[in-house]
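Please check this:
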Amino acid sequence: MPARRSPVRRSSVRRSSARRSPTLWRDADFRRLWAGQTASQLGAQTGQVTLPLLAVVTLGAGAGQLGLLRAVEQAPILLLSLFAGAWVDRRRSRTVMVLADSGRALALAAVPAAYLLGVLGIPALLVVAFLVGALSVFFDVAYQASLVRLVKRDQLARGNSALESSRSAAQIGGPALGGALVSLFSAPVAAAAGAFFFVLSFLSIRQIRHRERIPVGAERPPRLRRQIHEGLRLVAGNPSLRAVGLASAVFQFSFAALMTVYLLFLPRALHLSGAAVGLVLAAAGPGAVVGSLLSAGLPRRFGYGTVLVTSAALADGVMLCVPALHGATAVTVPLLMAVNFLFGAFSQLVDVTVMAVRQAVTPARLQGRVVATVNFVGMGLTPLGSLLGGWLAGRWGLRSALLATALLLSLSPLVMALSPLARLGRSLPAEDRTAAGEQALDDRAQP
């Protein structure tokens, strides 16, 4: 994303981008990437409902077991993110995405097969969850890095908007579809729906014809440890990226704990059906669409820092309403949908704004490593958060645990308000050239 420009230069770029904007959708390879990423997001969003419901409804998992399941699925973020970032930066992202899609489809297809053979239990489900989580780490890093290599720099904003819109659409359809499949069919059959979407993603992405150019220096890369260190150095040395990682870590840890309790609270405390659970979770999708639309203009009007802090506070604060609900009354599901809609809208506004800041300060050759490093820092604690949520639910009860985790979630806006992100104005920060350039020279000097 370009650095600050004078008003005259900025307006000319806007006119130039507007003239060139149709070429993004005329690009068949971008359409294939977009379609594949959309199918992948549908598979991931469906799995977020079907796998936990499979554990709770079919296998009778308790709070501790559900927390363990979610922790195992999230553990690859902590274990593999840094390696995945360096690995993707020196390989063709198309190949990485195709292999990840194939592996995830096979892993989820094994669930109904194991159920029919009578060997499906919590241990088998843990293995599937870990494999899907590990391959998702590589896919998520690869598709974000692939956009930078596939489109022109002045098309990144529109490309990101398209990909984020598809993610929002998946948030609408995925949970609702997963919950409906659990209600209409058996949970193991519903879990296999994710495999179908990953196959669709595989078929679309493998048709990309663009001869991907590996970033400079990847043909003779330095040691993997040096590449990982380069991403860590940039994130740690840049105030904006460092604040993004810290605020994300607090949010993701708390959100993992909250969601573990939430997925137990809806069917067991409120006695909602699988379809109702899917409908409630799907309400975040339309909210995310609204958040994506708002993200196009609000930061430039009110300032990036103001939008980030205010939106985070509103998103996290609205979750405090959920523990006050009792029973499956006529207004329970509509109220939960309203809460999830608002949470989705303000969370998406934060996500898109943070993504713009991150891409603006990151050199193109380091996009994969910075994505992976921020994911590592921000989401590395999610397995511990899931375990905490399961422990609190088992020890304190579902309602008290939900209130405690919602309060914990409210710490994220506070961290953001005390960070340099809160002081960002109406313009994006400039690309961090100094630290990245010095490290690039060091890399080329290595034999």
Observations:
- The radius of gyration is 21 Å.
- Residues 1-22, 435-447 have pLDDT under 50 and may be disordered.
